């Protein structure tokens, strides 16, 4: 009997481990392979571009392309135009979407689907179709509004110094991404609780929205601004067909005019700066997400 008890005890101590434990200990080669392929997909073109800017067939290794960034013709006017358009686009997107998102969240939740579908519609319109429609409208206005006071307005919105027509196109293109970002930030907040807490402390509805809800949306607002900035800096189709020369169009024109290494160097510098901004924003958002929303 004692031998049987000892045998049963040994069998119980040697029970097989769950299969999941074995799977956890195995190296996940599939995930590592996907990450490696993704890294190569992004890194190889960038490394090739860097080699193109520093490898001269005659001089060998040189940094002259990067040294010419500050003196190359046309760069700073094009970059200034893109930054001005980006700033104006961000402001207009905020003015359009922030009240809409707050109103849907607080006042009319049933309209959320309508607002979401409306803001998503620009995604189904290709850029070439959008600019074709803009060109048709501008041509119609030139043909039919010359004898009316609206003709001067039509000319003003096409001013090359600050093309308002291009700004309006950028707003339409930025709305889908901006709405998704702001809506995600709004969903992460208990808006009604924050609003009631502020009102219990004597704040009116408008003041509560401005001083309590918007400060807790800082991460979403920064993400929206960054996405809009990236869209404006990288957009080429609409601005090129309409005949304007912002940053992206200048880079393409510089490549075709024999300034390839310099324009590629500008692209690499802008890419590095964008990555640095993304990392800074990600670190800032992580720190803010670790803290709870506050009522000021």
Question: Hey, roughly how much beta strand do the residues contain?
Answer: under 5%
- Mean pLDDT equals 80
SSE sequence, one letter per element: HHHEEHHHHHHHHHHHH
Instruction: Report the CATH architecture of the domain at 76-244.
Output: Orthogonal Bundle
The end-to-end span amounts to 75 Å
Ranges where pLDDT stays below 50 over 5 or more residues in a row are 292-296
**Amount of helix:** over 70%
* Broad shape: globular
Strand order of the largest sheet: 1-2
Assembly type of the shown chains? single chain
Major sheet, described briefly?
Answer: 2 strands, antiparallel
CATH topology of the domain at 76-244: MetI-like fold
Number of discrete helical segments: 15
Helix and strand composition category: mainly alpha
Q: How would you characterize the overall build of this protein?
A:
With 296 residues, the protein is mostly helical. The protein has a domain at 76-244: Orthogonal Bundle (MetI-like fold). The protein is 75% helix and 1% strand. A two-stranded antiparallel sheet has the order 1-2. Strand 1 and strand 2 form a beta hairpin. Helix 5 (75-106) packs across helix 9 and helix 5 (75-106) runs antiparallel to helix 12 (218-234).
